[in-house]
Amino acid sequence: MENSTKKPKTTRKRDKVKEVVKETLHKAKENVVSQFGNFSQLIEPKNETTDLDLPTTQIEESTSIIGKIVSKIVYNSKERLLYDPFFSQPKVNWDRYTHLKITAYKTIYHQSKAWIYHANYVKVLSEFGVDMVGSIKNQWWNNNLDYMIVVEDYYTGEMSAGIRILIADENTPLPMEEAIKSQNPDIIPRIHRFDNVIGEVCGMWVKKKFSERGLAHILNVCALSMAERIRVKYLLAMPPKHTVKHFESLGYTRVRIGNNAEYEYPDPRYISTAMEINCEILQDTPMVVRDKILSLRVNPQQQLIEESNGYVTKIDYSLSF
User: Fold this and answer.
1) Sign of the Cα pseudo-torsion (44, 46, 48, 50, in order)
2) CATH topology of domain 94-318
3) 258-313, pLDDT tens digit by residue?
4) Beta strands 198-206 and 271-273, pairing class
5) Where are the domains of the chain?
């Protein structure tokens, strides 16, 4: 029996993508021809004086349609086909497709939005049996140094997830120092040495029905991209033990205060880890993540397709305010 050589996985993926592109362009061509007439005449008229059945405006319109269709075909670094739902192939599980928008706010100017954020945050915490944490014991929505990044459904406006950045100054303690100052009072001068250029990501929550879409990662990327805009050089975080690896994958490293980096927070059932990152250097941040952070810094308003756990999410980013 003859041995058949199997193509490498990357080659098979590339061939599959080429087939999808070819099929998409063929359908686009048929669509334009059926609507406007002969394709070759529309795209490549022999000369300006040729008698065409269509006025020039329709020719331009048809060419524009093809251009828009082609522009929807985008490849990411893994050579997978990313698509817009209007022009997509029927291979997508549309039960797993969602269109979201992510918007950054200076909290004090958006009080009503902050109250909705707060209510959702408390509700999500209560589902995990957590009643109160340091970041919600004060009226953070009245703080001039507080910023929110909010995820909402593009069509319904339902708030789906969020994260906050709180900047430290002489009158504003960060949740981390409030949580561990009784065990390690040295944390207070260590933080306030960097007043106005150090902050903490806190108050993050994701609704259960959106929990498989990678929103925690996306929100943290948004926070790191926004840090430069609000003049924050260092960000702190205090994630529970089961999410430490996620923060390390963003470039965060453990903060040793004395001999310890782990604390009981928000209550004795949870062990949380003090972590930090230099937002300017991003020295421990993987290249793929760093590229996305820098892309959102350069262009804080853009639309991207995100894929996670088999879910496809179109996200409209709006991180300038």
Assistant:
1) negative
2) Aminopeptidase (3.40.630)
3) 667 888 887 778 888 999 999 999 999 999 999 999 999 999 999 999 999 889 99
4) unpaired
5) 9-87, 94-318
